[in-house]
Amino acid sequence: MRITADQGLERLSAAGTVIIPGWTGIDAPVPARIITALRDAHSRGARLLSICSGAFVLAATSLLDGRRATTHWRYAEALQQQYPAIRVDADVLYVDEGQLLTSAGSAAGLDLCLHLVRRDHGAAIANQVARRLVIPPQRDGGQAQFVEQPLPRRERDALSPLMDAMRRRMHQALPIAELAGMAAISERTLMRRFKAATGTTPAQWLTTIRLDRARELLERSSDSIDSIAEQAGLGTATTLRHHFRRKFGTHPTAYRQRFAATAARS
To answer: Which of 123, 135, 146, 149 could link 215 by a cystine bridge, Cβ 3.0 to 4.6 Å?
Structure first.
């Protein structure tokens, strides 16, 4: 099967975001004209985003030198060997370096594109897109690409009611002992199964969905930061600011100001 582009590399001169899909092969040389076009687009201010082995094309431009990047775990070692100046992280779904973004396999590429929608237009719009695509509204970029011994489907499905309950009760304190009781398993078993199913811990997963809820409230309500922190289950405004700054590199107030116009139009 062959996919043919409607236009050539000249289209990059007007692009705001350039997506580099999987490359023809990790050892295949990247033509100089592609490297030049990507460098020119980057210098003009365009964002460059790679999916899977597309990271090798982006790496060939030298723009990733000294930066953190990822690719499919099968290719991570080869990427590091071919381009030692890059800090390759094989354990994450995607990496956002501002103007340069890289993702793991094809599914992680969807996660990264959805992350970009969220970055540009806010959580509410990104969640609408996710529902349209029938994919999870957010998988955190730091989530593991794979697990060595994945859970059987029946065990994964058994965690679904617990995760739904955690979403409904995100505004409440949910210590691990209570979560284990809700799932009728030991704390140790819960930690092991949750990590295998999601690539993260219950506490980290809860923080992620709480921050996503906080973003929605910041976009769509005029509630105070204290109120939003409480509604999202983050307790105090100080805690919300801490996690928000650490996760998104900005403050809740600045985020609200940025997306207020978008929320009003939608």
So the answer is: 123
CATH for the 9-113 domain, from 3.20.70.20, 3.40.710.10, 3.40.50.300, 3.40.50.880 = 3.40.50.880
What does the alpha-carbon distance between residue 241 and residue 251 come to, in Å, rounded to a whole number?
Answer: 6
Q: Do 51 and 114 meet the contact criterion of CB atoms below 8 Å apart?
A: no
Question: Mind listing the pLDDT tens digit of every residue in the chain (266 residues)?
Answer: 887 888 889 999 899 999 999 898 999 999 999 999 999 999 999 999 999 999 999 999 999 999 999 999 999 999 999 999 999 998 888 999 999 999 998 888 998 999 899 888 887 888 888 888 877 666 665 555 554 444 445 555 678 889 889 989 999 989 999 999 999 999 999 998 888 877 789 998 899 889 989 988 998 889 999 999 999 999 999 999 999 988 888 899 988 888 765 544 44
Please report, as a single letter, which amino acid is at residue 81: Q
* Phi and psi at residue 76, to the nearest 5°: -60, -45
pTM: 0.66
Question: How many Cβ atoms from other residues are within 10 Å of residue 189's Cβ?
Answer: 12
Q: Name the 3-class secondary structure at 172.
A: coil
Query: How far is Cα 246 from Cα 240, in angstroms, rounded to an integer?
Result: 10
- CA-CA distance, 257 to 218, in Å (whole number)? 9
Q: Which two tokens stand for residue 234?
A: 């983050």
Interatomic CA distance for residues 89 and 67, integer angstroms: 10
Domains of the chain, by residue range, sit at: 9-113, 153-199
Contacts of 261 (CB under 8 A, 6+ apart): none
Nearest to 232 by CA among 178, 161, 172: 172
**CA end-to-end span of the chain:** 39
